[in-house]
Backbone:
């Protein structure tokens, strides 16, 4: 895999959320804990994670975000520092604080059945981007062993090589996310990618590190992480030498066997352009 330096600006804005009840430390489930589904109206709070990216007016990613917040289930109030604070709850299925709106995404790439997260469209500053917002898995509830998750992916990019000006593309495809909870590593494979002008059919993110994000089970690029793009099984370099690579994501919900869902985002940049994407797993295999 091609391993590169990271921009180092993955935003992990921390908001005091629901305190973990009972239990003792990491290394596997310590208590009986029931995760409420995202649309549950059982009174109480759920700690949530919002995962996505910021883009500039030219459509290029300038930062990844993995933000912590609180969903008050009985009132549907959503409070995510750095993204949105809507104390009144959803109106017409949309959260709004006067500056930012968050509403369920109708993107064709995300047609799965989700219990603990929802893909959303975040609109702010005249720009709209896809985020994942969901009930965060507690880090202390991660099991030993490993698990495989499957779902969907959406990848886009702007290529500037070849001397013909910038060209953009969008692709959708399948996702396999393999989590080794014992070693603390995640591999992500986005494949069967298709769309006009897409120069590859597979993107692989390797050796992302599972981390404890203020008590939540998250993952991100680290030393040794890498990205690789292939077309027909052949490694290609549509960006030239990759100068910058970053990825981040979260596990969502769970049961006695571990997290139920997962999702994340990434970008890579080089002298010939930038690619970026978001992926979501709605099924644990």
Residues:
């Amino acid at each position: 895999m091609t391993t590169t330096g990271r921009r180092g600006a993955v935003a992990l804005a921390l908001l005091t959320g629901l305190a973990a009840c009972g239990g003792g430390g990491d290394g596997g489930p310590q208590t009986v804990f029931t995760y409420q589904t995202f649309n549950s109206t059982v009174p109480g709070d759920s700690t949530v994670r919002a995962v996505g990216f910021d883009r500039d007016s030219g459509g290029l990613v300038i930062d990844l975000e993995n933000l912590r917040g609180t969903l008050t289930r009985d009132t549907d109030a959503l409070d995510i520092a750095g993204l949105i604070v809507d104390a009144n709850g959803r109106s017409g299925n949309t959260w709004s604080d006067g500056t930012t709106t968050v509403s369920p995404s109708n993107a064709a790439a995300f047609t799965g059945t989700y219990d603990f997260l929802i893909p959303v469209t975040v609109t702010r500053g005249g720009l709209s981007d896809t985020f994942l917002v969901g009930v965060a898995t507690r880090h202390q509830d991660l099991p030993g062993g490993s698990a495989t998750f499957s779902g969907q992916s959406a990848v886009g990019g702007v290529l500037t090589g070849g001397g013909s000006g910038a060209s953009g593309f969008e692709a959708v495809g399948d996702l396999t996310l393999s989590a080794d909870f014992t070693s603390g590593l995640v591999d992500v494979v986005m494949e069967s990618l298709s769309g006009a002008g897409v120069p590859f059919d597979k993107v692989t993110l390797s050796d992302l590190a599972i981390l404890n994000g203020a008590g939540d089970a998250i993952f991100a690029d680290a030393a040794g992480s890498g990205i690789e793009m292939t077309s027909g099984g052949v490694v290609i370099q549509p960006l030239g030498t990759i100068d910058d690579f970053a990825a981040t994501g979260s596990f969502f919900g769970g049961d006695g066997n571990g997290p139920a869902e997962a999702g994340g985002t990434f970008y890579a940049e080089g002298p010939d352009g930038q690619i970026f994407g978001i992926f979501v797993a709605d099924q644990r295999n």
Q: What stands out?
A: The CA atoms of residues 27 and 140 lie 6 Å apart. The first strand starts at residue 45 and ends at 55. The mean pLDDT is 89. The radius of gyration is 18 Å.
